[in-house]
Amino acid sequence: MPHMILEYSENVEFDTQAFFTELHQSLVETGAINLKGLKSRAIKLTDYLIADGNPEYKMVHLTMVIREGRSEEIKKEISERAMALLEKTFGHYRENGHISLSTDMSELIKGIDLTNHNIPKL
């Protein structure tokens, strides 16, 4: 059920499939995330304002939505792994400019969040 929603300003360039492949692998390595349930998408933002509006500023934000029930330690590890990948993928923008990288996580409530799919066990 985990949903990964990556929003980024239109002045950021990267390979979305490579990013999500690495993100999925990293999250599965925690032992708390099932690969077959992961769903990720990227949204390029064309309407945004960063700080004072300097058009050179860039932003990337990853929203993670997971089912409730995971320990605080696991949630922290998931967040740290996600930020490490953001820094690896987009850190080069710090060398020649300014970028804001951020994550947040929310939890879906068991019994209220519903999933219906036929993706085979991976």
CATH class: Alpha Beta
- Average pLDDT: 93
- Characterize the largest beta sheet: strand count, sense, and whether it forms a barrel: 4 strands, mixed
Q: Strand share of the residues? A: 25-35%
**Total number of distinct structural domains:** 1
Structure annotation, total helices: 3
| CATH topology-level name | Macrophage Migration Inhibitory Factor
Which strand order spans the largest sheet, edge to edge or round the barrel? 2-1-3-4
Distance between the termini: 14 Å
- Give the overall form: elongated
What oligomeric arrangement do these chains adopt?
Answer: single chain
Structural class of the secondary structure composition?
alpha/beta
Based on the structure given, which CATH architecture is correct?
2-Layer Sandwich
Strand elements, count: 4
Contiguous uncertain segments of 5+ residues: none
Fraction of residues in helices? 25-40%
Label this structure with key terms.
4 strands, 30% helix, alpha/beta, Macrophage Migration Inhibitory Factor, elongated, 4-stranded mixed sheet, 122 residues
TL;DR?
With 122 residues, the chain is of the alpha/beta class. The chain has helices at residues 16-28, 72-90, 92-95, and strands spanning 3-9, 39-45, 58-67, 99-108. The chain has one domain: Macrophage Migration Inhibitory Factor.
Q: What does this protein look like?
A:
The chain has 122 residues and is α/β, with parallel strands linked by helices. The chain has a single domain (3-108), classed as Macrophage Migration Inhibitory Factor (2-Layer Sandwich). The protein is built from three helices and four strands. It has helices at residues 16-28, 72-90, 92-95, and strands spanning 3-9, 39-45, 58-67, 99-108. The protein has a four-stranded mixed sheet with strand order 2-1-3-4, with helices on one face. Strand 1, helix 1 and strand 2 form a beta-alpha-beta unit. Helix 1 (16-28) runs antiparallel to helix 2 (72-90). The longest helix has 19 residues, at 72-90. The two termini are 14 Å apart. 20% of the residues are buried.
